[in-house]
């Protein structure tokens, strides 16, 4: 990352085309997005493991709670989608607050 900033500082000193700097910036940007995506995926999977553990606990010790705990296939898709939205928005808001 510091290498990119060094190249940007050298931009005023040298007369290289902008494509040279994009060659460094685009892969660095893609790498940052991949790391952030892995961070969100890890958080979501940990959350799902916790939810499944609690669900199994209640199903084992309180079998009558099955109709309240088990989600249908349609509702499960909505639940997964909204959990991803929740964690992505949490991460975006956290990054914005970190910079301001």
Automatic annotation (TrEMBL):
InterPro entries assigned: 7TM_GPCR_serpentine_rcpt_Srz
Entries under Pfam families matching the protein: 7TM_GPCR_Srz
Keyword Signal recorded: no
Regions crossing the membrane: 21-39, 45-62, 82-99
Keywords per UniProt: Membrane, Transmembrane, Transmembrane helix
Keyword set includes Plastid: no
Protein's name in the database: Protein CBG26701
């Amino acid at each position: 990352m510091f290498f990119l900033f060094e190249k940007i500082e050298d931009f005023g000193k040298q007369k290289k085309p902008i494509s040279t700097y994009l060659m460094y910036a685009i892969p660095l940007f893609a790498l940052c997005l991949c790391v952030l995506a892995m961070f969100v995926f890890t958080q979501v999977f940990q959350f799902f493991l916790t939810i499944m553990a609690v669900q199994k606990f209640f199903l084992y010790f309180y079998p009558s709670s099955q109709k309240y705990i088990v989600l249908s296939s349609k509702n499960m898709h909505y639940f997964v989608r909204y959990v991803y939205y929740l964690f992505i928005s949490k991460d975006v808001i956290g990054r914005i607050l970190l910079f301001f």
